[in-house]
Structure formats: structure tokens, C-alpha cells
Design brief:
The chain is mostly beta strands and 337 residues long. The protein contains no helices and 29 strands.
Length: 337
């Protein structure tokens, strides 16, 4: 046994808002909401302990500002969790070895919305996704990740008869809106898939082959040239780097017309590595997205030719990407001041 402590830090000042010390035998992980279930302007923080402990680990959700416990559930054997932000904030837990195997609890009221002891709902990964089955479902759906398949679970009643099966090991996934329909973007060890999310006869087509490569840290990037976002994949296996794949044809392409390939904007970094920030100077006008190590866009910047912009960043490795074409412009390293 050893002691571990969870800290909630103010993102602007770095000050400790609260901390929670507890005993742990094995690993742990954290989820932070994008919304605000308590209505005080701060996200919630959920964490899980002892996910390989037969003695019984636990999952706790606290108010992000005060640290007050909103939910706490005991578990055994590899629990996984996710927190839904809206329209009705709730906590989903999938667990092997304790019953029920899957349950969804309201973060505000504390009651169980639904539960199931079906062992096919014991997933090593969970993720809430936007509502895809219409207004009859008051909750977003839950996407369960287990091995080489994904299972769609309705958030209100636990319906889970349909799943997406993949021919090779699943590495990462995300969701995006394609016109009026939601798509699943999933990476396996050999291919990238982007089917429409549906509860009726899921299909894996179309796909993009990634030969001799595995994908990780996937995110979706907005683009003015395409009706759907571009996907950014950090590649492994055939060499490091970021692979950009468009998920549909440009809007302007047809049999009679063609479109001019856009000119990639040029920007330079004035200091490498940056000390607490990066300084960017525009050689041409550019719309830039800054991606953190998880592949998520954390800042968007518009810069003109000759303009210099200083961007404060916490220490880490970042990618500067052209938001229009999705092409990688620079890799930036930031260290402590």
C-alpha cells in the first residue's frame, strides 16, 4: 500500500484549490468534465483508484472548485468511467468482478438511472457521445470500448444490441458531426475508419489503410475547405510524425470544376525551446491551431504578415497546424521559466 494525493489546480494561477489524500495499491486515472454540473462555474473532477485490486477500489467525483464529493462508488477489477456533461450530468461506470457490471448515476440527484449485470458491458474504456438516436433519448449515448469492437449503449435505458467490430486492435477513437449525422472516427493497428454512428446495422466503411503503422493521440481538426473535419493522427511503427487525412471530398470538387490547391502559410518560431511561452512571427497571413501532446487543439491564433505574437503555454511539446489545410507547420517545445 502507498499514499497518493489528487490535486485540483487553478488553471490560470497554478494555485491548489483542494487536495485529497488516499491509499492506493495500484494505478489510477482522472476525468475532468467540460461542463459544470453544480453550476458554480467550475468543471467536476472524477478519479478512480486501485483498478486492478481485488480488495475493492473506488471511483469518486468531486466539485472542481470546492472538492465536495458528488458521487463515490466502490468497485473491483478494472473499473472504467466517464462523466457526461449535459443535458443531464451523470457518471457511467463499467466494471468486471463486482455487480452491477455497468451503471449510470445522476451527478446531481445521486440516483441510479439504470444498471445491468450483463458481463458483456464490462469495458476497459467508456466515453459519452452526443445523442445519435433522436429526441426520445434524454441522455447522450455511451460508447464502450473493449478489445477490437465498440458497443453503442443508450444512456436512458441501456440498450446495447449493436456493436462495431474491427479486424485488428483498436487504438483510439473520436466522434464528429458530418452535416446532420454523427460519425465515429476510429483507428486500429492497420486502418482508420469513419462510419456513421447508428443503432441499426453498423458498417465500418469507408476506411483508410495505414500500412505498418499504429495511430495514437487522434483528434479532429476543422477546415474551411472540407464539409467535415480533417483527422490528425500521431503515427508509430513506420516513423514518428502526424498524418492528416481528410474525411470527405472538398465541397467545390465536381466533374466539371476543380479547386486550386491552397498556399500553405508560413510562420516562424523566434525561440526554440520557448521559456514559458512561444513567440510566433508571421511571414504570411495564417490561421493556426496549437495542439498539445494529446492531439487536442488548445489555442487558435490568427496572425498577419510581419506580426509577432507571444503565446503563454505550460511546459510541454506542441504542434502548430494550419487550420485551413491541416498541414503541420512547426513542432514547439516549452520549458519552465
Amino acid at each position: 500500500m502507498q499514499w497518493c494525493t489528487f490535486f485540483a489546480l487553478d488553471g490560470q494561477t497554478g494555485n491548489t484549490l483542494w487536495s485529497a489524500s488516499t491509499q492506493s495499491t495500484t494505478d489510477s486515472w482522472i476525468r475532468v468534465t467540460e461542463g459544470d454540473a453544480t453550476g458554480n462555474g467550475w468543471s467536476e473532477m472524477g478519479y478512480s483508484l486501485d483498478r486492478a485490486s481485488i480488495a475493492g477500489g473506488f471511483i469518486t467525483v468531486r466539485d472542481g472548485h470546492t472538492g465536495v464529493v458528488l458521487q463515490s462508488s466502490s468497485t473491483m477489477y478494472f473499473p472504467s468511467m466517464d462523466i457526461c456533461d449535459s443535458p443531464m450530468p451523470c457518471l457511467a461506470i463499467s466494471n468486471w468482478g463486482d455487480y452491477p457490471v455497468m451503471w449510470v448515476n445522476s451527478l446531481i440527484v445521486g440516483n441510479t438511472i439504470w444498471s445491468s449485470n450483463d458481463v458483456s458491458l464490462a469495458f476497459p474504456h467508456l466515453d459519452f457521445i452526443p445523442n445519435i438516436s433522436g429526441p426520445s433519448t434524454p441522455y447522450p449515448e455511451i460508447l464502450g470500448w473493449s478489445g477490437s469492437y465498440l458497443t453503442l449503449i443508450r444512456g436512458d435505458d441501456g440498450y446495447f444490441q449493436d456493436r462495431y467490430e474491427f479486424p485488428s486492435s483498436l487504438k483510439s477513437f473520436d466522434c464528429y458531426l458530418d452535416e446532420s449525422q454523427w460519425r465515429l472516427a476510429a483507428i486500429t493497428s492497420t486502418s482508420f475508419y469513419y462510419p456513421y454512428l447508428t443503432f441499426v446495422s453498423p458498417t465500418l466503411e469507408p476506411s483508410v489503410v495505414l500500412p505498418n503503422s499504429g495511430g495514437a493521440d487522434m483528434c479532429l481538426l476543422e477546415s474551411n475547405l472540407y464539409p467535415t473535419p480533417l483527422i490528425a493522427i500521431a503515427m508509430t511503427g513506420s516513423g514518428p510524425g502526424v498524418c492528416m487525412i481528410n474525411t470527405s471530398w472538398p465541397l467545390s470538387i465536381s466533374e466539371e470544376t476543380s479547386t486550386r490547391v491552397p498556399i500553405v502559410p508560413v510562420v516562424n518560431l523566434l525561440s526554440v525551446p520557448g521559456i514559458g511561452h512561444i513567440d510566433i512571427v508571421g511571414v504570411s497571413q495564417a490561421e493556426i491551431g496549437i495542439l498539445d501532446i494529446t492531439g487536442r487543439v488548445i489555442k487558435r491564433i490568427s496572425i498577419n504578415s510581419g506580426e509577432q505574437i507571444s503565446v503563454s503555454l505550460v511546459p510541454g511539446v506542441y504542434l502548430l497546424v494550419d487550420q485551413t489545410s491541416g498541414l503541420l507547420l512547426h513542432r514547439a517545445i516549452v520549458v519552465n521559466e
